[in-house]
Amino acid sequence: MAKETTQRSSLLQGTLDMLILRTLLYGAAHGHQIGKHIQATTNDFLQMQHGSLYPALHRMEKKGWITAKWETAPDRNRDFKYYRLTPEGKKQLVVEESQWKQMAEAVARVMWPAAEEN
Fold first, then answer.
1. Tell me: the pLDDT tens digits for 71-105?
2. Is 2 helix (H, G, I), strand (E, B) or coil?
3. How many other CB atoms sit within 10 Å of the CB of residue 29?
4. What is the pTM of this model?
5. Would you give the DSSP letter of residue 77?
6. Which partner for 60 in 16, 32, 40, 65 could form a disulfide, CB atoms 3.0-4.6 Å apart?
């Protein structure tokens, strides 16, 4: 049971990492912007909770996939921590997308086998 929980957690973590990396492909953003982008892009299906988003950002920063820098927001007189994709992060995004595509295709073959036969 512990192995199954670890695999599921790893899958969800990898998916979140991929979504964050993909969001940062468009440019620097602070955490709230990243969460709102994912939420808006998925028509509110995925809602980023701070308890998931910020640990993921910190983990990805430690891995060198993103960098972070405190900056003043252009439209506010307040500092935010802006995250940016690194070259290593761009490479990781390619890996994550490939793995996601393989998994989605495998699940689709199980769920809709008739589509493969046509």
1. 988 778 889 999 999 999 999 999 999 999 998 99
2. helix
3. 19
4. 0.82
5. S
6. 65
